[in-house]
Amino acid sequence: MKEIVAVLSAGTEFKDGNWQLDYWSTTRCDVALKLWRLHSWHVILSGGVHRYNRNVQGIPSVASLMKDYMVSKEPSVGQRLVLEEDSSTTYEQLYNITKFVHSKKCDVGILSNCWHLPRISALLAYCPQLRYLVGEAKLFPVEAYMVTQDINNEVIESEVQGIKDILSGTYKF
What we know:
By secondary structure, the chain is α/β, with parallel strands linked by helices. 40% of the residues lie in helices and 19% in strands. A five-stranded parallel β-sheet has the order 5-4-1-6-7, with helices on both faces. Strands 2-3 form a two-stranded antiparallel ribbon.
């Protein structure tokens, strides 16, 4: 295992009686499939049960829903998927990915949306626990591989606030 792309999950939604990936997680999976087809990389699917739902029984991890989605589109990708199901925040995702790639001594690319990558960069720069990824990880913006973009201002404002909170020391890990 030399090169890995780590897909940071966004979230899920309960729709039509089932837990499903939200729009952002779905688009990240679609792009991960494109990258897998181009490079045959291993793919880490990162995301546990959201922290607000941890005590609710029967909710699948976001990573498991991402796996189901990707395998339904491309069954052979299943052999290259690694699930990280213990995280519920971006920081936890990055921390768990750091531990994994450090133990495997491999290169990693982090796949997320362009509005999320600045906060990821801030976390990598601010948190010594993530230092292994600093300078090692390549950041892949989902939008670079998509035909259309659909980003609303509320999401961007939330990400900008996250960066401010990291820099001011008030970010809630």
